[in-house]
Amino acid sequence: MTDSPKPWDAPQVRKWLERRIAAARLDQAAADRGGYEARDDYDKAAAEEWACRAVTGADWTDEQATLAARLKELIGQDDYPVTGIHDDLRFERHVRTYLRKLAKMTKANDGFDKTLRHQ
Q: Residue 3 falls within a domain, yes or no?
């Protein structure tokens, strides 16, 4: 007997994205208090928030294929406009890394049930 793949749970994905946005904001605030030494942590958290916000709007999360297509489109972008970061190149690298992580999670339909702040 084989296990069928679990169905796409759009509300769970949206909940996971919202929680990651909240966690990224908390991480940015902590990094901001960390000063000069925590600039990379700030850019990393800002990249996570940007990536999650880019797929939260509209109806991107309703279907697995739609979210995967949106992530592929975002990964192919040349730049990711945002203000208030410390290093544009480092931020863009972190955004692409996080988008690839989301794409892998979407393809496997796995990991969206982990809603704790630290992953």
A: no
- 21 is a domain residue: yes
Q: Determine, yes or no, domain membership for 35.
A: yes
- Spell out the residues 6+ positions from residue 20 whose beta carbon is closer than 8 angstroms to its own: 48, 49, 52
Torsion of Cα atoms, 99 then 88 then 86 then 93, to 10°: 30
pLDDT tens readout for residues 30-62: 999 999 999 999 999 999 999 999 999 778 899
- Spatial distance between the Cα atoms of 77 and 91, rounded to a whole number of angstroms: 14
Give the closest residue to 55 by CA, choosing from 6, 3, 110, 95. Answer: 95
* Domain region containing 33: 10-108
In a domain, 114, yes or no: no
